[in-house]
Write a structure and sequence with these properties.
This protein is mainly alpha-helical. It has 13 helices and no strands.
């Protein structure tokens, strides 16, 4: 009995996060496509329910209660899923960042809905983000973006430096003013940085920022803002797009190479099978030739 238990523990320990392999019946069941599809459908339906619940003031109390009960039931289903994975994978469960994300999000959803935890309870909508690793296409895109984060950090540092330099210059040039609107835009360093961020996003930059500075007695201020827009918006911000596109292209290339390797392996296996079949056919032909030779020899002997 002890040996059987030990074998069971060993099988559970050998469980891996690879969905292509399974070492126990429970692991095989939770890795089946139907189980993943069931969880995906629940996530989508739960997201719709959470959206409907934002209109609870205009809904009937009975409907609101039914939707809340459904939300609680779905939360327990997700918690059960996490528990099953912990039983199967044990400590290996925490080797995946996505599993950590699921664990934290579901844990937050289990917090009682008191006023002290109202903000955390509002975060239960984050369960929708589980689609990012359940749906294969979303997972590849998300992983590509995660790989691009270090490069994004470097670009963000350059952008912050350019914004800081521009904010210092703008404060010195436009901050000393009696116009309250301009003082609100460039009266100190934080205000200047915030205003330049608005200019960088090109959200109402002309009339809400630049025109006010020009009307305050700075007719050539537009030159400064145009240069800043070219550097920050057209040059640096576009680097983010280039980095993301490059990351997605690299991920697609890796996926293509993986597919080509799988095709090559299949061709090699088929070639080996064909080679083995050829050897078996040759052996059979040689055996038939030997039998024919024996028959001929037997016939010749009887004729003599």
């Amino acid at each position: 009995m002890g040996d059987a238990t030990g074998d069971g523990d060993q099988r559970m320990t050998r469980a891996t996060l690879d969905i292509e392999t399974s070492h126990s019946a429970l692991e095989r069941e939770i890795e089946r496509p139907w189980f993943r599809h069931f969880i995906t459908i629940l996530i989508v339906i739960n997201a719709v329910v959470l959206g409907i619940l934002t209109y609870r003031e205009s809904l009937s109390p009975g409907l609101v209660r039914a939707l809340e009960v459904f939300d609680i039931a779905v939360t327990w289903v997700f918690a059960t899923e996490i528990l099953l994975k912990l039983v199967v994978y044990r400590l290996q469960f925490f080797k995946s960042g996505w599993n950590w994300f699921d664990f934290v999000v579901i844990g937050v959803s289990m917090i009682p809905g008191s006023a002290a935890f109202s903000v955390l309870r509002a975060m239960r909508v984050l369960r929708v983000l589980r689609l990012l690793h359940i749906v294969p296409v979303m997972k590849r895109i998300t992983e590509a973006l995660m790989k691009a984060l270090p490069g994004m950090g470097a670009i963000f540092a350059v952008l912050a430096l350019v914004t800081y330099v521009g904010a210092v210059m703008a404060t010195n040039m436009f901050g000393d003013t009696s116009d309250p609107d301009v003082a609100l835009l460039f009266g100190d360093l934080p205000k200047s940085a915030y205003s330049l961020f608005q200019v960088m996003t090109m959200d109402g930059w002309r009339f809400e920022v630049v025109q006010k500075v020009i009307d305050d007695g700075n007719p050539y201020a537009w030159i400064f803002f145009i240069i800043f827009i070219f550097i920050a918006s057209f040059a640096i911000l576009n680097l983010f797009i280039a980095l993301v596109v490059d990351a997605l292209a690299s991920e697609q290339k890796a996926l293509l190479e993986e597919g080509l390797e799988d095709i090559e392996d299949e061709i090699e296996e088929e070639f080996e099978d064909a080679h083995a079949q050829r050897d078996e056919i040759l052996k059979a032909l040689n055996a038939m030739r030997a039998e024919i030779a024996e028959l001929k020899q037997l016939v010749d002997t009887r004729q003599k």
